[in-house]
Amino acid sequence: MTSLRSDAFVLSRSALTESSWIVCLLTRREGKMRAVAKGARRTKSPFRGALEPLNRVRVEISLREGRDLGTLMSADLEESALDLFGRWPAAGILLAVVEVLDRGLAEHSTEEETYRLVGAVLDSMRSGVSPALAWLYFASWFLRLHGVLGRPGRCAHCGAAKETGHFDAGAGGWICRECARSRLEQGIDVSSATREALGDVFRLSLPGLAARSPGPEALKGLKAVVYLALVSYLGRPLASGDHVSG
Ligand SMILES: [Zn+2]
User: How far is CA 13 from CA 35, 107, 174, 175, 185, in A?
Assistant: First the structure.
């Protein structure tokens, strides 16, 4: 039996018994993990209020050799996300963030950068960055960290170093005009303004990106690109996609 202490974001939970939850967490040290929170559904549980989506908590998880499912020993609330879930459209964006993390991360694989990304996105939303921009920043970086969305520059299909103004997840990402023609209506043409905005996403902090305030057309294109890339990465559309689809 070993025990893990780590900061974590709560992702989701499901009922295990009448009194217990299975909680899914993004821990700073071990990535995504699931643990049983015994008695957490009781009114007087010490977990009460801590295990809400995107709350940042300090957890202790007890792990048994050879078993993926741990036991949550304690969860101390460090920062609640209730303030953000009480606003619209921030809440809709956060539901999509939770869904991407819940479905898009493998268990027990270190995700320090993803953990920091989530913290940066929540902090920026609290300090007034628009939820729509926060979503684009989160989704672009999540996809980049998981090898799906790089900077445009080299054709993923033929390998040529030429202008790649077309995004086609099925062909590996950014492709050139000639390859796009041979792929018959797959993916989308992406304007240079949108490609530039993506470059800014990868170059600037989220508050820095907000200060630069990319134009609506560029953002609309970026919204479509990240949505298509996410659907391809996750294997099916986002259930919480209404707020974030192109
Ligand atoms: Zn090509």
Answer: 9, 15, 36, 40, 40
Residue 147 Cα, ligand 1 centroid: separation in angstroms?
Answer: 19
C-alpha 62 – ligand 1 centre gap (Å):
50
For each of the domains in the chain, give its residue range(s) and CATH number, in order of start.
Answer: 2-80 (2.40.50.140), 83-152+190-243 (1.20.1440)
CA of 168 to the centre of ligand 1 (A): 11
Give the mean model confidence (pLDDT) for residues 228-241. 90
Q: Three-state SS for 74?
A: strand
The rounded Å distance from CA 83 to ligand 1 centre is 46
246 pLDDT higher than 70? no
* pLDDT of res. 10: 98
Q: Which residues contact 20 (CB under 8 A, 6 or more apart)?
A: 36, 37, 38, 39, 40, 41
Do the beta carbons of residue 143 and residue 233 sit within 8 Å? yes
Ligand 1 midpoint to CA 166 (Å): 10
What is the distance in A from the centroid of ligand 1 to the CA of 230?
22
pLDDT in tens, 132-179: 999 999 999 999 999 888 888 889 999 999 889 999 998 989 999 999
Asked if pLDDT for residue 77 goes beyond 90, the answer is yes
Distance 188 CA to ligand 1 centre (A): 14
Average pLDDT over residues 216-227: 95
pLDDT at 65: 86
